[in-house]
């Protein structure tokens, strides 16, 4: 198996420096390790689409995006893929050029959310999305909204398949993170990038209303709104952390947060199936979420709240006083990555 992550470029290096440094470290250590069955590559490309009109998104899908290091041919040669592979799986539409370089028995594309909700890129993405969906043998959709978009744009076949989780990875006992050791009171954690999908005003209001609770963001803060709360003693912006450290930050918290901005970013929020939801639950955390369909569909362990601060506060208090139902463990086993993989391979006849 070969994984090629979302690429870096000079443009995408602006802002969120901590996260980019982690990505660069990954670039330098990619292809290392003893397990030849799996290799991960990060590429530096001359051009990568970003959500800004001045980034010339129209060039993203041309040959300019192919130029970079390590080279495409170099990866194909190193992994013995020049003569073809069984499955080409693409979970974004920002690297469509792989279709020109590798012959695959099956081509699957996954829409993690509604790509047409990404503002400045919409005109270019609209055209590229339609082309790729018509070429794909299967389009994997985590939500009803993404499935509807896929069908409207010409998908041949769709499969509704949500995210999964490596339960064992998040259950294994971890040492309390250094950043938590001096905190007094409960810990409410948000994991992942803090961007325009998240309600910054709600988070600031909660921190002000609940001084006895520590609100922790483990991830890259990409919008300025929540930064105004730096003076709040109970709001802690820890920045991104390596994936292998994530379970510790969840296991030693008390509640997981999903304060998505349903009213302000409906195209993105209503179509997504947040991976963090599964990771919170696998770590033993109850979750409080705004009305995101994926969260509402989880059978136990999640309390849905409006975006009003007083409602969200009550939901957090409720989760802090309760315990995660035992039925959540059984449900998590059903959505493990191994089961998700089997379902995907069955759908394309490669099981």
Describe the secondary-structure layout.
Blueprint: E1 2-4, H1 17-29, E2 39-41, E3 44-45, E4 68-69, H2 72-78, E5 85-90, H3 98-101, E6 104-110, H4 122-135, E7 138-141, H5 144-152, E8 158-160, H6 167-171, E9 186-191, H7 200-209, E10 213-218, E11 235-237, H8 246-251, E12 255-258, H9 266-269, H10 275-282, E13 286-289, H11 293-296, E14 302-304, H12 309-321, H13 327-334, H14 337-347
- Count of beta strands: 14
The secondary-structure class comes to: alpha/beta
Number of helices: 14
Q: How do the strands line up in the largest sheet?
A: 11-10-9-12-13-14
What attributes characterize this protein structure?
six-stranded parallel beta sheet; alpha/beta; 351 residues; 14 strands
Structural commentary:
By secondary structure, this protein is an alpha/beta fold. Helices cover 33% and strands 16% of the residues. The protein has 14 helices and 14 strands. Strand 5, helix 3 and strand 6 form a beta-alpha-beta unit. Helix 7 packs across helix 12. The longest helix is centred in the middle third of the chain and has 14 residues. It is globular and about 60 Å long.
Give a nutshell description of this structure.
It is globular and about 60 Å long. The chain has 351 residues and is of the alpha/beta class.
